[in-house]
């Protein structure tokens, strides 16, 4: 009996390592879309180009956040349906997700066609940076359907037992982006247009690779010939909302910080913050990768009623996150100056010093960011959307904005850097309280006897009412 339990734990650990490692690589590759732009733009267009990029980045967060909301929300419900044998429900969920993706894509494309200049001005672009910011925004918005579809397919493939393909799709897109960035900016001399064109083509390549899951006929989901229903779509919003808010919070933080830093340090300060913000994308992507690797396994365990396995999966994710947070902060702390120098194409000493100082203070938040990301994913995976919504809103709106203005008023630019770790630490405390409260309620409601293997198998086959094929 003991050997059986040990074997089960080892299987769960191996499965978690497989999903989490592939997902971390995939998310790190996605973050390289923008990081590659940061490096090549700083080298080819200088500090003004870097400022324009940082002003446009929030729109990328909005697009990517929308794709993650639809993909994570739909795929989470799909995983629960799949674990219970409700294939019609899974297909209905995928179909509703595609419809919503098309609707949001039309909205973003319309913005790119009708008002890129007004949007660039709204984000803070001035006479120097307006042309480059407008170009980046317009092309990015026109490629939004590719970004959104790429996110949807990545999430569904990962939940359909194909994490390797999801990783391959993102890595191939990212490598293509890096290569095309260099070709378009330097040999072709296409400037900012070349940088954003390379970024836009990356998800097109990702979609092509992800589509192999259909061509090889290994997928267990497909579009259904039905119109989407509100009962289907609400899962995209309810379960995917934390993923959207996580990206929106990053966008709002960038917008607010750009506004404050423009008043304190001007365009040079915004360029320095651009380095900090883009390195932050990579760090956040690592934690998001752990969370997304955990999510399919956690949703499956939840759907089967196996709480012990769910608990082990979350423990593995938390330990992995903490170890990576320590390593990442150590790397940033000791190599802040060389990291800043990579993006200092003009050799500006004040810019380099400001960026290095910001990196060391800003990334004090690393462990708190990781914990908050995992907690949001945990609540979503077990279909407890409200705590995830609370944490997401606290991080993205309720705490960070007043904290940034207050700290900036007291400690100037140092206060701006410190407002981020202070916010994440406070939200982390709230998240831990919600987690233990939820755990206590679940334990109280738990049956005194664990479900038998036969009952777990019955749970796997049990259809979910809203997704019967005849509805």
Residue share in β-strands: under 5%
Helix-strand pattern, N to C? HHHHHHHHHHHHHHHH
Structural class: mainly alpha
Q: Span between N and C termini?
A: 44 Å
Oligomer: single chain
The number of distinct β-strands equals: 0
Mean pLDDT: 86
- Give the number of helices: 16
Give me the Rg, rounded. 22 Å
Portion of residues within helices: over 70%
Task: Give the overall form.
Answer: globular
Low-confidence spans: pLDDT under 50, at least 5 residues? 458-471
Main beta sheet: none
Task: Summarize the entry for a quick read.
Helix content is 85%, strand content 0%. With 471 residues, the chain is mostly helical. Residues 458-471 have low confidence and may be disordered.
Task: Give structural notes.
This protein is 85% helix and 0% strand. It has helices spanning 2-83, 87-114, 116-122, 130-142, 144-159, 163-185, 191-210, 212-215, 230-304, 307-334, 336-342, 349-362, 366-381, 385-398, 400-445, 453-461.
């Amino acid at each position: 009996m003991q050997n059986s339990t040990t074997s089960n734990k080892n299987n769960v650990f191996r499965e978690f390592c497989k999903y989490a490692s592939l997902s971390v690589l995939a998310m790190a590759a996605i973050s390289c879309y923008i990081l590659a732009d940061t490096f090549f733009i700083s080298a080819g267009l200088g500090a003004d180009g870097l400022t324009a990029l940082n002003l446009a980045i929030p729109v990328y967060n909005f697009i990517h956040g929308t794709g993650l909301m639809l993909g994570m929300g739909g795929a989470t419900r799909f995983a629960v349906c799949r674990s219970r044998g409700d294939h019609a429900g899974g297909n209905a969920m995928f179909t509703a997700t595609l419809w919503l993706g098309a609707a949001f894509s039309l909205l973003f494309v319309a913005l790119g066609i009708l008002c890129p200049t007004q949007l660039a001005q709204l984000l803070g672009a001035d006479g120097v940076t307006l042309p480059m910011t407008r170009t980046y925004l317009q092309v990015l918005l026109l490629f939004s359907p590719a970004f959104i579809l790429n996110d949807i397919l990545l999430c569904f493939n990962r939940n359909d037992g194909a994490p390797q393909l999801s990783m391959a799709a993102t890595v191939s897109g990212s490598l293509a982006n890096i290569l095309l960035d260099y070709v378009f900016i330097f040999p072709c001399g296409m400037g900012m247009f070349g940088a954003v064109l390379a970024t836009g083509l990356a998800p097109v390549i990702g979609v092509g690779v992800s589509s192999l899951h259909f061509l090889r006929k290994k997928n267990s989901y497909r579009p259904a010939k039905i119109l989407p229903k509100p009962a289907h779509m609400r899962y995209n919003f309810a379960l995917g909302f934390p993923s959207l808010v996580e990206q929106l919070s990053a966008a709002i933080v960038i917008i607010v910080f750009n506004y404050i830093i423009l008043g304190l340090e001007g365009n040079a300060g915004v360029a320095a913050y651009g380095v900090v913000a883009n390195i932050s994308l990579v760090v956040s992507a690592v934690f998001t990768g752990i969370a997304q690797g955990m999510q399919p396994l956690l949703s499956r365990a939840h759907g089967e009623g196996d709480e012990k396995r769910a608990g082990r999966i979350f423990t593995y994710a938390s330990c992995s996150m903490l170890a990576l947070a320590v390593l990442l902060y150590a790397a940033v702390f000791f190599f802040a100056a060389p990291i800043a120098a990579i993006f200092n194409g003009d050799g500006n000493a004040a810019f380099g010093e400001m960026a290095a100082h910001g990196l060391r203070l800003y990334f004090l938040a690393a462990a708190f960011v990781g914990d908050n990301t995992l907690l949001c994913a945990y609540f979503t995976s077990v279909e407890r959307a409200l705590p995830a919504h609370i944490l997401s809103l606290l991080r993205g709106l309720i705490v960070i904005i007043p904290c940034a203005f207050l700290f900036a008023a007291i400690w100037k630019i140092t206060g701006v850097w410190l407002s981020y770790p202070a916010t994440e630490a406070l939200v982390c405390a709230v998240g831990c309280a919600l987690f233990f409260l939820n755990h206590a309620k679940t334990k109280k409601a738990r049956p005194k006897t664990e479900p038998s293997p036969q009952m777990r198998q019955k749970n796997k086959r049990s259809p979910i009412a809203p997704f019967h094929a005849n509805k």
